[in-house]
Amino acid sequence: MIRASVIGAGWYAAENHIPALARRADVVLDGVCRLGAAELAKVRDAFGFAFAAEDHRAVLARRPDVVVVASPHLLHHAHVRDALDAGAHVLCEKPMTVDPAEARDLVEHARRLDRHLLIANGYQYLPHLDAIRTRLAAGVIGRIEHITCTFISATRPVFEGSVGFARWKTTMFRPDTMTWQNPAGGGGFAYGQMSHSIALMLWLTRLTPETVAARSTGTGAVDLADAAALGFAGGATAALGGAAGMPEGQRALLRLIITGTAGVMTLELDRDEAAIHTAAGVERLPIAPGDWVYNCIGPIDALVDLAQGRGENRSPGEVGAATVAVLSAMQASARAGGAVQVVA
Q: Was domain 123-293+313-341 assigned CATH 3.30.360.10?
């Protein structure tokens, strides 16, 4: 049995992470932490946690086996570090941190303590993507030269703070403005959503980012649309883009075109379609309808499995830290109006 605790039991933790933990017969919900006595009692009673506290240190003093950190972005570093020090394997919500130096510190700290550190990037756990990653590494399209990566999601109300989604009428909590609409705290589309698409791109291709030139736009305090030109070690390039423009209720558009010296791979996750174009012809991969509908259960299962000595980490802290480095460089470039170095 794995004793699990959750730090930051807000909107998404209550909708995904806690139910995903609770559905497993080999998990005991031990401790839960969030601010607000009434809200804390609500989530404790709804899921049957053994212990609840507004101070995360009280939860960690019970020495849980695994910890999910889903607190506001600016608190991730302190909460993850404390959880690692308490001996837990940790799943951290994306973005891993806002500061690249803090992300690097968490990777190194987890390594020193021999603890697993995962980021809540669910796309990497969807069917077939691990096999696709393996084929890319084996050179199915040759050496990668260019990538186009586009992500359009139905998240405008999250970043604008409007009444927004009808589904919020039935959720336990609503998104916290401290997390999503604070530009100094990693609010906005880039940190909130491109942290998914960039992480997927970096994980699939295993490329190391070096330079970024970016622009962003928005109607309020935070960005709602972003574009960037990215340069990798070895000479490959990427065109990144995204916006919070998809209407509510419609599936997020996520597409990658990966071009190599011997062919092209196209991934249309919103359409459950993938193909490999080479001189031998076009190979259409057997993606079933619904295979690539997003969910974030995979990272939760991986966290528990790894704590039991099995399974695979497809969303490691190293990829999370590289993603934060790209996002930070994008923000700096957009402010400066020119290209900047990626400090990985």
A: yes
